[in-house]
Amino acid sequence: MPKSPQTVSIEAEGLGKSFGDLTAVEEVSFTVKPGEVVGFIGPNGAGKSTTLRMLTGFLRPSTGKARIGGHDVLRKPGAARRQFGYLPETGPLYGEMTVIEFLHFVAGARGMDRLALDGDLNRVRKICHLEKVWHQTIETLSKGYRQRVGLAQAILHDPSCLILDEPTDGLDPNQKQEVRDLVTEMGSEKAILLSTHVLEELEAVCDRVILLHKGSVLLDESIGAMRKRHPLFGSVKVRVAESDAERAPAVFKKLEPFVSKIDRQGEDFLLYSRDKRNVSEAVLAVIKDSGLDLREVAPVIPRLEDVFQELTRPTSNFTEEDE
Ligand SMILES: Nc1ncnc2c1ncn2[C@@H]1O[C@H](COP(=O)(O)OP(=O)(O)OP(=O)(O)O)[C@@H](O)[C@H]1O
């Protein structure tokens, strides 16, 4: 049956997993739709890999369901597996096989159409840039190439959904960029869920982020919304001429409707946005009116790392903000 790209998505519904007394994952629900690349993040031990393994049917959940393209991964494993590709944290690569032998083996195990296989192999060889190592044994490959072989097996059957567990782990910056470009390219059509520890990766490839903490979903929102949780979102740094530094605080008082707090260090001022709207325009207008000798003005770009750290600290002060 032809697959319908409009409907093939990744779904977790109330997923939970306990190992003995340890609840590793609890009530995790989310959806990844076609054309979405979603980052799956969380501190070590948050339950990311456990969730991904349940989504792919490699681990039986204690509670809840995982569906790929509407197929329950445990009840309809064949139908579900045709719709997704999975790059596990530690790929099951067979060292003694060459790349092409391994991909033939994978195709056989998946029962792929032999007549169309040459076309599929050519496609992944090109996409994953495997031409140079095609006939090389996997045990002799660099980490970067092994990761590309892992990706090649994940996309060999051209699945509509991809589940990637730390796809850029251990790669050098150039290789990381290549994998990110690949994910972005594939993400225009496929539903992609990608776990990562590298938050800059979120910026580069993801539309949305799901933050898992202690086995539960702490947030599921756009990158912009996550950044907006930072207390400095919308704030502005200003430097005035030394000769004007003393009269600047009185001028900035006029900004009270927009600015909730001002930190000063010499001629440098940090003006905190009151409601997380960008206060740059208001600041510039007030400075212009006052004739203050402005030397520098720059909006604060809050780091996602700060938001992540703050949210996953034992006592977090960050609050949810309206879009
Ligand atoms: N097979 C298992 N048996 C017992 N405990 C397990 C098993 N698999 C995972 N765990 C535990 O479940 C919790 C979640 O682990 P998991 O590997 O899913 O976290 P993670 O978010 O992927 O971590 P990391 O970022 O370090 O990869 C951890 O406390 C881990 O020790």
UniProtKB/TrEMBL annotation:
InterPro entries according to UniProt: AAA+_ATPase, ABC_transporter-like_ATP-bd, P-loop_NTPase
Domain ABC transporter: 10-239
MF (Gene Ontology): ATP binding; ATP hydrolysis activity
Superkingdom: Bacteria
UniProt key word Magnesium: no
Keyword tags: ATP-binding, Nucleotide-binding, Transport
Pfam families referenced in this protein's UniProt entry, alphabetically: ABC_tran
Keyword Transport in annotation: yes
Family, similarity comment: Belongs to the ABC transporter superfamily.
PANTHER family tied to this protein: ABC TRANSPORTER RELATED (PTHR43335:SF11), ABC TRANSPORTER, ATP-BINDING PROTEIN (PTHR43335)
Protein name, UniProt field: ATP-binding cassette domain-containing protein
